[in-house]
Amino acid sequence: MDENGKERIGDYELLALIGDGAQGRVYRARCVADALPYVRQDEEVALKVVRITGEDEKLRLKFQEQADILRRLSHTHIVSYRDCFAWHAGEWDEAQCLVMELLEGEPLSDRLKNAKNGLPWPQVESIFEQCLAGLIHARERGITHRDIKPSNILLTQDGDVRIVDFGIAKFSSRMSHTRAGTLKGKLAYMSPEQV
Question: Which are the catalytic amino acids?
Answer without folding.
Answer: 147
